[in-house]
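User: Predict the structure for this protein chain, please.
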Amino acid sequence: MIPEIHIEDYDYGLEDSRIAKYPLAERDQSKLLHYRRGNVREYVFRDLPSLISPGSLMVFNDTKVVPARLHFQRESGAHIEIFCLEPVSPAEYATAFSATGSSSWKCVLGNAKKWKGDILRLYNQDASPEISALDLKAELLGRDEKTGTVRFSWEGGHPFSRVLELAGTVPIPPYLNRESEAIDTERYQTLYARIRGSVAAPTAGLHFTDRVLQDIRNKGVDMENVCLHVGAGTFLPVKSSLVSEHPMHREPFVVTRELIKKLMEGGRELVAVGTTSVRTLESLYYIGVSCIEKGIPQDVQQWAPYTREYPYSTKEALGAIADYLDREQLDSLVSGTRIIIVPGFRFRIVDKLVTNFHQPESTLILLVSAFVGGDWRTIYDYALSHGFRFLSYGDSSLLERV
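Assistant: Here is the predicted structure, written as structure tokens:
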């Protein structure tokens, strides 16, 4: 049964002054709130390894933010901003980024009403000779209310990933109320980012430094990665009062056969770094159900966890995925999820969560509430009254599941 949840019940007073507009000088010097069984204690992120049990399995999201925001200009002088969301042709991320000469993408269009369909050229004021040599152009192939399909073409034989590196800017969150700056190129990216595809950072990972990661290893913690590409939908507010009317966007992910094997073994705490890791890991159960009942993995739909009872154990569901991968001789599961995690959700895999402090009335607040048994206000009231910094460049928390 789909829960009846009113989003206004998940509001709190967040003043603009509490939003961290820039990162701290050192990643691991941010504050860390530890929540356990209704109790809150305050640390510095550098202390995180001391709060993780030896033998735990810690899962990170190694997606990499791409500089997906491009600025073009019409011959009339009008500026058009194009924000690449996901590839259309070629449709697979890796192939799209390696494409040379041209590539088509689904994009958000800024100042779209002024784009009449003419071919745009890159706005290259003070551009370097290398950028000018690209002769980057944009052609509008079609549009709907919010997005358009844009075909990019360029010279020089560079892959599209290099074109973005040269001509694009990092798409920092709109709530920072500023333009991207040089510091964002480095700091709006985790140290372990590896696979291009996100238009927003998995921000819980921004606090990790090499020394924190090494201290975690030294504790005997097993570390694995998933890859979920974070879409622009992560910035979309819940606009309807009833959460049941809010559509979740699809996000693609990859999970290795090796990680699924470790999850099947069980018997140890699983620490997810970031809500994206949680959504990926908890989606695996429902993909396993699809493998059991239909023989193949299918995307997880938004309300799948709430619309029926499932008779399968977590080990059975994960085993079905492993059997499918073995049968198809695949090293990784490639799938997608629209899952929404709200109060009433049954967590099957994740025990602890490292996460930042999220926007009021957001799906991420709902996820946090579900994780801590509804006690999210204890966490946020403490953070607000003790000088914590909020949102992407803000402070962090380690939450233990109720």
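The first helix runs from residue 93 to 98.
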